[in-house]
Amino acid sequence: MAKSEKQYSMFKNFLRTPTPTLIGLYIVMIIIFTIADRNFLTIQNFRGIFNNFAVFGILASGVTIVMIAGGFDLSIGSIAGLVGIVSAVLMMDRFAISTPLVVIIAIVIGCIVGLINGLIITKIGINPIITTLGTLAIVRGICYFWANLNPRIYNVFIQNLGRKFILNAIPYTTMYIVVFFIILTLILKFTRFGRNLYAIGGNETLARLAGIPVDRIKAITYVISGFFCAIAGLLLISQLGSGRPEYGTGAELEVLTIVVLGGVTVGGGKGNFLGVFVALVIIQTISNGMVMMDVPIFLRQVVKGALLVLVISIDALRNRRNLQLY
Amino acid sequence: MPEIKEYSLEPKKKAKINNTGILFIVLVVLFVLFSYIGRPFFFSVLNLVPMLNNLSFIGIIAAVLTMVMVTGELDFSVGGNIGLTACMVALLLSKGLPGWLVVVIALCGGALMGAFNGFLATVIGVNSMIATIGTMFIWRGIGYTLSNGESMLAIDPVVDYIGRGYLFKVIPFPIVIFVIIFAITYMVMNLSKWGRRIYAIGTNPMASYLSGINVKKVKFINFLLCGITASLGGLILTSLSAVGMPQHGQQLELIIISGIVLGGTALGGGKGQILGTLAGILILSILYNFLTIMNVLYFYIQIVQGSVLILVVATYEIRQSRALKRV
Fold first, then answer.
1. pTM, whole model, 2 decimals?
2. Long-range pairs for A167-171 at CB < 8 Å and ≥24 separation?
3. What architecture does CATH give domain A26-317?
4. Which residues of A touch B254 (CB under 8 A)?
């Protein structure tokens, strides 16, 4: 009896999240795009869509964790770019560093930048948007130190990281995202750390009063975000085959749209990975559909910005607790 | 026996120089220092006049953005606004419209952009920091779409005069605009009822609402003004460079916001001085101008800009938390 009640409430909780609406929206979208272009609903095309969202999906997993705890991270694109170009340079022949070491260095760089973000935000107490806007510029500037080297990727391990398919249909990268999302969902649901994240996002003062080490946990969320940025950076250079300092520019716009569309509230405290995954597929399908329908490249940026504004407006209207007088 | 500390209710004896004064002293010291290190280029008419011209379009936006920030809101989209205005002006001029009409249309476009930001922030109630990040991408994207990613010539007597004209054949016109806008915003913030409302809203929006201030209206009009000023800045920049290109004003928000915060405006609102903003923007302008003169590569300057933003905000946060601990 108790079990069925619990299942019933779980289903009700699921219906209360925006995820069912998103799934409905996605079905409508597929129908529209299929009518517009008959090449849309093919395995070839969907293979492309799923492989293309690898970087954004990995970035979104870090940002989701940060935003559930009420934080914000704009520097993700820059960190991914930095990790990408540094590891590409390290893999050049003249350095001759073994692959595992390169991966470790990449992850360490990502985590360190994330840690710096986290320390500035928690120890000094600066607004996270301003802090990460600053680190966005700083890290992007650092990327340009290696602008002249123009490294190519010949390393087989890195090449295969983001380019292989299972049965010629399912990309490995989608598997990474699914695995990461499942692990993170389990962490959010079943560990003390996960529950603390929701507590901090819901009401930071209460969480502090309840004895949760708020500062430490918030700093850790930025380190997690940095870790995922590092992996995204490796995927970037794997899929693009070279290291350039401008890789990852503007990723924050897309990732922010994905995460908020997935039901993660801007103030924190709400959100799950199922919603983020559906949102990820939706946003990437829109990008793909715009390419299929020959929308000019500059107009696509306008559509993406408009999507972000629309999504956060809906989020704000949905979470408005009472009549806003001021 | 625990010591009993005495607290006096009388205000502490005020220091003779306030923060803005300190900033102006820093400004003078930096100016002298840069003139010495960067001789003979830094302190010359050929450098200072263009620097002031450049500063004028950043400065007017900063002045009005200070009003927005004192109410506790923020507008990141000013840089995108500049890019869109520049492209719009160049496109309309290439279609053969008269210059004065183009200027009017550009300012109306700015008003629309500001109104949209204000609508998002007040009516819908989105956190304005995030909403304006979205609109920043939209404005710049429209700019790219209008210009197809190319830079277009923008030459017309009226538009030329805004950025390159001289009043009485001596004073560059952008500097005239700069002085006028700073004078107006100073008077509004310090002498008018409107200014007092802005400070009241920033300090406590609930209390302001209860005492009969239409908080949403004030915030909305501030955003509107910010949009118009950003367009004016875009016009100046288009006129200065004689081209309209969508990259105009990229990452300008970094300089403007760090200048405003350096001038003593709190990110949470309620505190801020127009004169402080003036000092902050002047300091940053001469700093970046000096770095350019010293042949520092652009990406190093970008690193400096990001670091300055974080350093400045950090300093104010630390001072504020210390002040809180003292109480």
1. 0.84
2. A169/A43, A169/A47, A170/A47, A170/A50, A171/A47, A171/A50, A171/A51, A171/A54
3. Orthogonal Bundle (1.10)
4. 133-134, 137
